[in-house]
Fold this sequence. Notes:
- This protein is of the alpha+beta class.
- It contains 10 helices and 8 strands.
- The strands form 2 sheets. It has a 4-stranded antiparallel β-sheet with strand order 2-1-7-8, covered by helices on one side. Strands 5-4-3-6 form a 4-stranded antiparallel β-sheet, with helices on one face.
- The radius of gyration is 51 Å and the shape is elongated.
Amino acid sequence: MALRPAEGAERAGGDAPSAAGAAPEHDGMENVQQKKIFEENKEKAQQREEPCAADSVDSLMAEMPFVDTDIEDECAMHATSELSIKKKRKRATGREIEEGVERKKKKNKQYHPNYFISLPITNPKITGSIQAVQDAIIQKDQRLSKAMVLSGSLHVTMLVMHLSSEEEIRIAVGALSDSKIFVDDLLKGKRVDLSFQGIDHFRNQVGFVNLAENDDTSLLKEIAETMKKIFQEKGIMTGEERAFKPHLTFMKLSKSTELRKQGVKKIDSSLYEDFKNHYFGDEILHRFDLCSMLKKKQPNGYYYCESSIVIGEKQAAEPDDAELVSLSKRLVENAVLKAVQQYLEETQNKSRQTDGSPAKTEEAASGSKSDSDNDNSK
């Protein structure tokens, strides 16, 4: 019985060194694995700490709403999720769009044209021809009568502007007055004949008569540019920067909101096909007006005028050579006529005296009467 515990102890003792040797071996394997895991984690940590790659920066920059974002700042945002970046970009872009729309609305409201420089059309041949075109169109489509421009309102628009106060109106009047000096100097006494021929349209919404392209039309365009610069130098906003295209509007759908309700969405060019190349007449350039789009029109249908300038008008104290020659001729003619009249009167009186004219008979009768009186006194 005593031997069994000894054998057990011996087995235990014999196993003990073996267990003790296995323990360090097991610990070594765990240490290797832990070290390996540590090295892997360290490597991953170093990779995370490396700077952003160039292609990653470009990708992020492309998503940003502002292209001038600093690259270093962008790299500092590497911990921000892509989702948050997109949301932020969307919010920023949304604000920009809203602000842009608000600015545009404010600008449109502030600079919506309410005044314009008009070249009035007064030649009866032109206004009569346009009336004939309008009548022909109305006969084909009665609804378009609401789109016609009255003959008294016919004009060529030189430029448009927004005047928001009496002070700005006063400045515009001064700018128009200054324009006369430059325009007269540009023309140098030359008469400008504007020839109107042919019909065209703007997007089938506006019908107008064209100005024939010639030297006088080029002069008109130059006048428009000169006037525009003068007004802008005075601080007056003069509308869009599009090239000036002079034209004479005779109908436009925007004149009546009822037309769209009646199904009229565009002007059919076939309605004025017979007049497409028609010659309407010439207008001699003689006046420019500063007109209001909103104030009540004049009884003849023309717009309310704040001011006007007459082109080519001479000052009374500064007659030109032609006027001086004409005046001299009239003075000479009047003097000659007066001398001829005086000569004729003298000739007629002499002929009466020699031919027993009433003057001589009257003298004889006077003598007979005198003799009779003498006889009676006796």
